[in-house]
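Data availability (excerpt). The following record was deposited with the supplementary files.
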Amino acid sequence: MEVEDWYSYGATLEPQWKYDEGGHPLITALLESKLPIFEQYLIEWKNFIADFLLISPVPPSDNLSPFWHNRWFDSLDAISLFGMIAQQKPKIFLEIGSGYSTRFAYGAKKAYSPRTKIMTIDPEPRTAVEQLADETFRSTLQSCPLYLFEQLEGGDILFLDGSHRVLQGSDVTVFFLEILPALKPGVIIHLHDIFWPEDYPKDWSKRYYSEQYLLGSLLLFAQEKFEILFASHFVSKQAKLVKIFAELWESPKLNGLKPLGGSFWFRKKS
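Predicted structure:
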């Protein structure tokens, strides 16, 4: 992609905020204030430990069931997605960008929330989602009618794992500026590959991801409208919280599963 009228203005493509240097100070303080909430969710999700121990560490033969070592959807992301669906029992789970997450969502639905309707939006899904979802849209987010999102009620889940780039006409731009304002209060929202209070990893600089900067602005300046529920990457750095699932990390059956993640969960308040 050729960029016209480009001046760097000092842009280095180096992480601006690093965890070992305190991260972004305001977002660090905000997430630290939510630690009791994060801990409570993990304690509640531990009720599903038997289900988690049954999930294969490697790709299953059916090519549809979830598995832990998939490289794209880390352990704390899978735990939080499974837990949210099993616990909240949403009427609708609307997913933008499907694949390994769909497998975990379907597993939670099958075991704990059979009435949940799984809907996926993805022009080129990596998994045979038609066998897992109740309704699929092979299209971009930008081309979907707004009523798909306006139908969501409190307790329903809207799950975005798209391009991660804020560009003119991109899915992330439309998501933040058109879809979020249209959502009803109580809708639970998920974004993936979020590293707050750190910046994106240095070895991701050539991806030009920018989604979490919009999220950061929202967290800092719209706290009256959105409630933080869970932050996988931040939790992965908290030894006390990670120990809650020690049985998973120490299980010889799971081939050295690590507490990693990039899921960020929040709920619209008004």
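Summary of structural features: The domain at 19-268 is CATH 3.40.50.150 (Rossmann fold).
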